[in-house]
Amino acid sequence: MQDFTAAFRAALDLVFRMDADLMEIVGLSLLVSGAAVTLACVIGFPLGAALGAGRFAGRMPLLVLVNAAMGLPPVVVGLTLYLLLSRAGPLGPLDLLYTPTAMILAQTVLVTPIVAAITAQIVADLSEEYRDLFATMGMRRTAQAATLMWDGRFALTTAVLAGAGRALAEVGAVVIVGGNIDHVTRVMTTAIALETSRGALELALGLGLILLTLSLGINAALMGVRAAARRLSDG
Fold this sequence. Notes:
mainly alpha
């Protein structure tokens, strides 16, 4: 117990004095996850809007595929990207393996289905409410999707935050394609796993505290967005 208390105090000291190694790991984590969530939104929002408001051949199989992809095993995604990015793979000449870019790609693959599926559900629900209005106005599907996206912008924030939570907590895929290289590709989750296995609890606990704080912040933001959306709909 005394050893744990000492490690916890040392972890708090690392956090409060903003230890350089700790902040470097946190900064890279936020950079990788932020870039991945941004890319996932660029892909997932239009895809989700098309699935939610569109009526085209193959829509239901694609919707099922997107929803199923929400549960993709991270290690399988990491292994697939590893094979694609390795020297012998088709993308080997790009020399992306064991770089932050490869980690961003891995997280983007994992987060995009989440953003797309949530967006599709939100847009589909709103589409039912606006069906008669759209029919009266004779709006095209693209205009309908844009209108629904704007009207559901607060609800769509939940997709962004859910994706951010998934990205920050990811470890399996990023450790495979990133290699967990010190000062290059080491992020919070991979560093926690490594330092814990080494018995270096101070850094692991410090990173764990920051990761937990970010997770709580994301969940608090989700609750706030949902409350704001309810107030807006009631008003």
